[in-house]
């Protein structure tokens, strides 16, 4: 008893890229990426000659179902059908059944293409085939409660074959509007594979519970490779579960150390060298850069209105490679002369000396020194003895809390001055 399938979902056809507003890198590629990624999945299904394709909800991004998105989806499913590959599709929170009902003439279930809840008055359905059952649950509207309230437990006959749950849900959540469910609850269903949708980052949550992720990332949060899962089943167990990338455009985050950079130009050159030395595995890799470290370029970077705009104008066009910087986040720290800090007569000086003197920072000493500093300040400001005593009493009461605060302050000041310690 052998068969294979592809698990995809969260295709979000029609969804534009976000986070690219400031610059426009190769807009055409980005505009077509979602459709191209879906087409790659269809090609993959044909190449692997799988028995069926699972789509775990959110095929479309919104109720518009614009014509090119509809065409892309329907043509893909038709190509599968023409090659004897069935498709099982559920509706998610972005494309619930009620949206398909507005476009009913486009979507006709024929036993080969199956969109659960469209052309029928149910939202939960079990497809019983020779070698497998698929228990599928669609969102009727944009919200749904716990999926185990709908999905069936297995009968004796069901247990003879491989059982798949096709579910759009928020796993490990309790307060979600989008079909929240715990792993324990899912396990009680006793299925052999849970084809999950809703979360856009691909992840095998545990042996049988898999989020396929979106085949094409659209936002800077969706970093890394995106694709689908290809599964081979033999004798009621999965003998191979493989993640196959299908993305055309990829978001990557990199941190760049600016310790050695004297000015903005040097920072920009470093960014440019870094990204141009990377090879893109896809048509376009979009880099989200974070500048780090203590740098002499700090003030110049800080004063620049839009680093990404300035970088793109001067460095963006020079490369014809398939990499592009789309965001520059400045987290550098100011360069500080340690000797100057040690000479400081205020709190900073006390902290700097404490750090300089000892690896084991003596918090009591710091506290006493700061108290002394305050005392001098009271004298200067002419605060009378009584109110000073009251203040210092209250300080004593909260000493533990104050020390904790000083400790935290100290940590953040250290990180600011010396970089992360
Ligand atoms: Mn969703």
Query: Can you summarize the main beta sheet?
Result: 6 strands, mixed
Distance between the termini: 57 Å
- Stretches with pLDDT under 50, minimum 5 residues: none
CATH topology of the largest domain: Purple Acid Phosphatase, chain A, domain 2
Helix content: 25-40%
CATH architecture descriptor text of the largest domain: 4-Layer Sandwich
User: Hetero groups bound?
Assistant: manganese (II) ion
Shape call? elongated
Beta fraction = 15-25%
CATH superfamily of the largest domain: Metallo-dependent phosphatases
Number of domain units: 3
Radius of gyration: 29 Å
What features would you highlight for this structure?
421 residues, alpha/beta, Purple Acid Phosphatase, chain A, domain 2, 3 domains, 6-stranded mixed sheet, 12 helices, elongated, binds manganese (II) ion
Summarize the structure in words.
This protein has 421 residues and is an alpha/beta fold. The chain folds into three domains: 2-245, Purple Acid Phosphatase, chain A, domain 2 (4-Layer Sandwich), CATH 3.60.21; 249-334, no CATH class; 338-418, no CATH class. 34% of the residues lie in helices and 24% in strands. It contains twelve helices and 19 strands. It has helices spanning 27-48, 67-82, 97-101, 183-187, 264-276, 298-303, 307-315, 338-343, 347-357, 363-381, 385-397, 399-418; strands at residues 2-8, 52-56, 86-90, 113-115, 124-128, 132-137, 162-168, 170-171, 180-181, 193-197, 203-206, 209-211, 227-234, 237-245, 249-257, 284-292, 294-295, 323-330, 333-334. The strands form five sheets. It has a six-stranded mixed sheet with strand order 4-3-2-1-13-14. Strands 5-6-7-10-12-11 form a six-stranded mixed sheet, with no helix packed on it. A hairpin with a 2-residue loop joins strand 13 and strand 14. Helix 1 (27-48) runs parallel beside helix 2 (67-82) and helix 9 (347-357) packs antiparallel against helix 10. The longest helix has 22 residues, at 27-48. The radius of gyration is 29 Å and the shape is elongated. The two termini are 57 Å apart. The mean pLDDT is 89.
């Amino acid at each position: 008893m052998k068969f294979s399938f592809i698990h995809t979902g969260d295709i979000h056809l029609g969804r534009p890229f976000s986070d690219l507003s400031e610059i426009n890198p190769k807009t055409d590629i980005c505009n077509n990426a979602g459709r191209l990624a879906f087409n790659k999945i269809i090609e993959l299904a044909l190449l692997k000659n799988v028995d069926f394709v699972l789509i775990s909800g959110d095929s479309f991004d919104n109720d518009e179902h614009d014509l090119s998105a509809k065409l892309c989806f329907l043509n893909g499913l038709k190509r599968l059908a023409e090659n004897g590959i069935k498709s099982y599709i559920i509706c998610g929170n972005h494309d619930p059944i009620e949206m398909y009902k507005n476009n009913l003439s486009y979507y006709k279930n024929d036993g080969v293409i199956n969109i659960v809840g469209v052309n029928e008055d149910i939202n939960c359905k079990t497809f019983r085939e020779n070698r497998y059952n698929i228990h599928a649950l669609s969102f009727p509207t944009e919200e749904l409660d716990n999926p185990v309230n709908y999905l069936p437990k297995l009968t004796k006959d069901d247990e003879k074959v491989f059982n798949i749950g096709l579910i759009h849900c928020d796993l490990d959540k309790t307060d979600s509007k989008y079909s929240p469910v715990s792993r324990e609850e899912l396990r009680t269903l006793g299925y052999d594979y849970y084809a999950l949708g809703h979360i856009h980052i691909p992840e095998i949550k545990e042996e049988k519970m898999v989020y396929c992720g979106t085949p094409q990332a659209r936002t800077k949060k969706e970093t890394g490779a995106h694709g689908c899962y290809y599964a081979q089943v033999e004798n009621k167990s999965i003998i191979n579960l493989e993640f196959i990338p299908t993305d055309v455009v990829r978001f990557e985050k990199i941190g760049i150390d600016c310790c050695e950079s004297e000015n903005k130009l040097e920072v920009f050159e470093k960014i440019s060298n870094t990204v141009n030395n990377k090879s893109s595995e896809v048509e376009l890799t979009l880099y989200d850069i974070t500048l780090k470290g203590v740098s002499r370029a700090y003030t110049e970077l800080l004063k620049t209105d839009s680093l990404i705009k300035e970088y793109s104008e001067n460095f963006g066009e020079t490369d014809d490679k398939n990499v592009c910087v789309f965001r520059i986040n400045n987290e550098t720290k100011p360069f500080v002369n340690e000797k100057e800090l040690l000479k400081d007569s205020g709190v900073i000086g006390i902290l700097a000396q404490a750090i300089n003197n000892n690896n084991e920072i003596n918090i009591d000493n710091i506290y006493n020194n700061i108290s002394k500093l305050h005392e001098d300040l009271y004298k200067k400001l002419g605060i009378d003895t009584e109110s000073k005593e009251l203040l210092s009493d209250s300080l004593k009461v909260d000493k533990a809390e104050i020390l904790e605060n000083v400790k935290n302050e100290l940590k953040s000041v250290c990180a600011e001055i010396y970089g992360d310690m």
